[in-house]
UniProtKB/TrEMBL annotation:
It comes from the Bacteria. Pfam families: DUF3039. InterPro entries: DUF3039 (IPR021400). Residues 1-25 are annotated as: Disordered. It comes from Amycolatopsis xylanica. This is DUF3039 domain-containing protein.
Length: 80
């Protein structure tokens, strides 16, 4: 019996929203009342674009925003 070594596989998911330094490439729009719960409890939130993730960072003014989330948000009526 012989042992074989498998070739190294790239395990990073396609289209990830994070960079190598653990800072997000862009931020998503999420229901305001779910942000604190996710940050404290570690629960996942669903962004307007459908992305599901736990809240780990807060956006600073001028941070890049997910284009799909922005398009959906801009299409909502005020008060929705």
């Amino acid at each position: 019996m012989s042992t074989q070594t498998l070739p190294k596989q790239d395990t990073r998911p396609e289209g990830t929203d994070s960079t190598d330094d653990d800072s997000p490439k862009m931020f998503h729009y999420v229901r305001k009342n779910k942000i604190a719960e996710s940050a404290v409890m570690g629960t996942h939130v669903v962004a307007l674009c459908g992305e599901v993730f736990p809240v780990t960072k807060s956006a600073k003014p001028g941070s890049p925003v997910c284009p799909a989330c922005k398009k959906i948000y801009d299409g909502l009526k005020k008060g929705d």
